[in-house]
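Hi all, posting the design record for the shared folder.

TITLE: backbone redesign
STEP: 1 of 1
STRUCTURE INPUT:
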């Protein structure tokens, strides 16, 4: 009984019964260079073309991200995400209607449907929540690596003697879609590691800190989303994530050589 009680006590760090990963999706480093330009481009054709090119990578990135959070939690003993039908590669199960509309309209920020996690199932809630939190970003990096090799295959085909008008017609757009997919997965991984609620990095930070400090951090959680918006619109987020995004992307694209 004492061990269970201690486990529930530690689970309070993560709001007890139903902790949800509210994943904010940030696309400014992918699509625009002027953070103050928040209105969609008036060129409808160009906007639709842009949407078609980024949608597959966006859906893939959030799907592997959310699935992996739920899967890691499940392997550590928490069936909550599985019972909620979130252990699936169907992107519709992970999309949030309002968050998706926000992303389409602003082309800057949106969010996915929360993944329910109950830390009371974990043997060591602080440690296990850290692994659950790292699962999503790690899955995005692995996905980016896989897409780089797919891009390598496309490049080989494009430079081979098997080229034709038909292959060029399909390989050109496919190349751009995968290229965007690599960037989107890297951005989602790096952005979510910022230690600000409700991002994954905040849970990682709580898992690394001593318990007393982790409890003190709870005080900023109610203001986390507003704090995140302030960091976004003041350009602080770009300042923080641009260097690691460029570094990771450059390192992965070297595999194409």
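Okay, here is what came back for every position:
SEQUENCE:
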């Amino acid at each position: 009984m004492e061990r269970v009680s201690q486990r529930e006590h530690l689970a309070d760090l993560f709001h007890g019964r139903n902790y949800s990963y509210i994943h904010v999706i940030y696309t400014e480093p992918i699509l625009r260079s002027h953070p103050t330009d928040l209105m969609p481009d008036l060129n409808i054709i160009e906007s639709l073309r842009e949407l078609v090119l980024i949608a597959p990578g966006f859906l893939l990135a959030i799907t592997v991200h959310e699935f992996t959070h739920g899967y890691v939690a499940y392997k550590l003993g928490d069936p909550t995400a599985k019972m909620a039908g979130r252990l699936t590669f169907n992107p519709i199960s992970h999309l949030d209607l309002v968050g998706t509309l926000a992303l389409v309209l602003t082309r800057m920020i949106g969010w996915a449907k929360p993944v329910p996690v109950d830390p009371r199932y974990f043997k060591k809630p602080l440690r296990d929540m850290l692994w659950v939190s790292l699962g999503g970003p790690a899955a995005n990096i692995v996905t980016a690596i896989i897409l780089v090799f797919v891009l390598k295959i496309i490049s080989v085909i494009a430079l081979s003697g098997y080229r034709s008008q038909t292959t060029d017609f399909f390989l050109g757009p496919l190349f751009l879609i995968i290229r965007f997919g690599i960037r989107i997965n890297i951005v989602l991984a790096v952005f979510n590691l910022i230690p600000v609620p409700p991002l994954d990095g905040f849970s990682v930070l709580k898992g690394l800190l001593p318990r007393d400090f982790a409890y003190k951090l709870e005080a900023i959680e109610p203001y986390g989303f507003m704090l995140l918006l302030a960091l976004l619109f003041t350009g602080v987020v770009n300042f923080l994530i641009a260097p690691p995004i460029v570094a990771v992307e450059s390192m992965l694209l070297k595999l194409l050589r």
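COMMENT: Residues 2-256 form one domain.
Let me know if anyone wants the other runs.
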